[in-house]
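Session log. Operator J.P. requested a structure for one protein chain; no other inputs attached. Running the standard single-chain path with token output.
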Amino acid sequence: MTALSLYNHTGFHTYATAYSEGMFAKDDTPCPYNSGIASGYLPVFGIFMGVVHICGGANKTRNVTLVGRIGLIARGILECIGCGILFLIPDLIVTMHRHCCAPSPRVPYES
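Structure written below.
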């Protein structure tokens, strides 16, 4: 398994991108992750998501690169102080890049 970078923790995931980047298992859905990212934009809910991101960055048992850890902690701090809305534009840009560059999931042909 490769280490997850900051790119994996920024932007929203679809079913195709989540599995191709190794963020989720085949049975998991990216909806709770996307809901958490979206709730981080709101100042009151951003405190909870900020703490989650800080703990995720500080947890050394996760397979995250050093840049990914620093990015998660910085994102968590900004979400805790109510500046989570600053990540809306970068998240949308990363999501569009991911959508355009993600491999298409293979749909088996029904016979």
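Operator note: The two ends are 35 Å apart (CA to CA).
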